[in-house]
Batch of 2 targets.
Target 1
Amino acid sequence: MNLSDLFSIPLDRDPERVAIEFRDASGSAALSYAELHGKAARFAAVLAQQGVSRGDRVAFFLGNRPEFAVAYLAVLRLGAVMVPINLAYRQREIAHILGDAEPRALITETAQRAVLEELDAKEYPVLERVLFVESLAVEMTAEEAPAVAVDGGELALIMYTSGTTGRSKGAMLTHDNVLATVSGLLAAWGWSRADSILVTLPLFHTHGLVVAMHCALAAGATIHLRRRFDARAVVEELGSGSCSLFFGVPTMYVRLVDELRACGAAESLRALRLFCSGSAPLSPETWSAFRDLTGHSILERYGMTETGMLISNAYARSGSTDGRVPGTVGVPLPGVSARIVDTSGDDVTPGAEGELWVAGSNVFDGYWRAPEKTAESFAMDSAGRRWFRTGDLARRDLASGHYVLLGRRHELIIAGGFNVYPREIEEVLETYPGIREAAVVGRPHPEWGEVPFAFVVADGELPEGEVIAWCKTQLASFKAPHGVRVVEALPRNALGKVQKHLLPKDL
Ligand code: AMP
């Protein structure tokens, strides 16, 4: 089975059901499954005329809109490979991806024209084959391209990682890789065709694309697609009763909690069946505040661009939501194996900290045209099994058996020989009155080698000395930050992940 086969199951079963409902400032549109797939088949004919064929890459520099799904299904139909580009990227980053992936065509929208015009057209032949989705209605005829029978082992996606260090790398995902994540999530989270999901996450990232869009279109559910997240609009829409699911990143939940407190409409969200969070750590404070307001225990899960989804809290355990433990990401999803290992690659003792390694048919093939980076990212065990080194540090909570993430390996602080996990200090700081968000980084120190420093977003002035003294009552003293600086906002990427390398270096 390939992804086109998977997506055609709901088409055959319930062609008239609404697949995508879209609304923005300029209007609204709705596509049934039959219309979505019909347009995709006709768009595939346009792409084929442009010379796109099996194995060719097609770059997307496109915001959330129904044509994103139409164009993606068209690419899959031809056996081609989608390369989504983060819309926040500018000349240098876009040029890197175009140069590396060498796409045959680029699909975009007029809103992105100015950014693309900054690129040197002579350097990128693809810029001669830019398709603006607004003009497709004119270009599409009644002709439908036949579906190419690609094998599950062929590439479906090359997704460039957010790359907080160095140049971003293209993670090669096969049809089988994506199918493994999607089928695991369909089962684990109880998706059905009765579902409808509000999607405000960007579709260029794995969270919006694989977790939300793929699962919904495979389940035969309805996607309420929006250009972007707006807390007030989300509360209104979820409160209107038209959705059963909402997926977000932690910063969205922080804003939803603020909005719900301000508008007092939390009761109206009770009817949803599931709220999920992922892509960055969700603080137990936000989890509890959301539950107190709405009665919902947010289901936190963990995954990566390279692997799809890996670990998740339980959707339901014995008919309740008690299987969800705040501050943990749960247990491996169906088909995923996980280990926590020390620096020699040996399993740590139960409960101890180490790097998380994963294996499963969801795990990507490797990085595009980067065999050395691929080789560095995998380790073979004595039985010949290939493990992906996630670069994330984790431990297992012995009481619940759940995995707890401790931050990225390269962000680990080693103070006087002791391992200090920034995440642990951030969680403590976020319980201090007036501190809304915290990011802890290591800074060089003559005696300790490295020590933790904190950047926080606070409601007002903070007595630095008191915060540090208080941290020492909550944590071993070598973990207490040596300084706490209040900043207006933490630097975050499009998915709300804190970009620690962009924090000031002078602290
Ligand atoms: P991306 O490839 O952009 O999805 O980023 C993947 C990275 O996001 C992981 O390697 C983790 O460091 C982080 N991440 C994803 N989900 C979570 C989570 N629930 N809690 C903490 N970090 C997460």
Note: The radius of gyration is 23 Å.
Target 2
Amino acid sequence: MDATQQKKLSAQAAMKFVEHGSVVGVGTGSTVNEFIPLLGTRKHDIDGAVASSEASAALLKQHGIRVLELNNTGDLPLYVDGADECDPHFRLIKGGGAALTREKIIAAASKKFVCLIDHSKRVDVLGNFPLPIEVVPMARSYVARQLVARGGHPVWRPNVVTDNGNVILDVHGLRIVHPEETERDLNQIPGIVTVGLFALRRADVVVCAGETLERA
Ligand code: 5RP
């Protein structure tokens, strides 16, 4: 089964977590793009959605789903999103689609984070996928030096400005054995807006190719 078919199965399986009358947090990326049309079939049954990117907001609207502001909804019962890597403890690397900051905010504000993946995303140790970090533009070189000092090889993602007006550094060469420690450490560097490690607030449920996985 190819990755697209696996993503479709995961998106279908996620629908069972959507509650009547609720507001659903919706992430960003090709996997979530399989979920949004399915959510559209229940647009009259839900209250609306909070989007983690302008791209997802546009797709939600295309499918007739009311897009709400997190500032007006309060905390959400459910957040559905994809990931670039997922370890056996449901810690994630995210941000391949440059939406990591809003994704992290919605994940934090949600009771249940359901992460949809295909088999290619499953890893034992995070870090093979370059770690995305959103950075305030004027801090780019300073932050890059801090990352080099920690053994990483940051690469400025070309032609990308995030929805928040920032840039992305993709950090290669990290083997993230202690993701919570690494997330805490990188969070301290001035100029970093968001680290694409979702370890402190990891997924609650992971669905891989339609199968709900158990946390190790
Ligand atoms: C966007 C993300 C995505 O969830 C991640 O990149 C996975 O994308 P896809 O579903 O296209 O494989 O973090 O910032």
Note: DSSP finds seven helices and 13 strands in the chain.
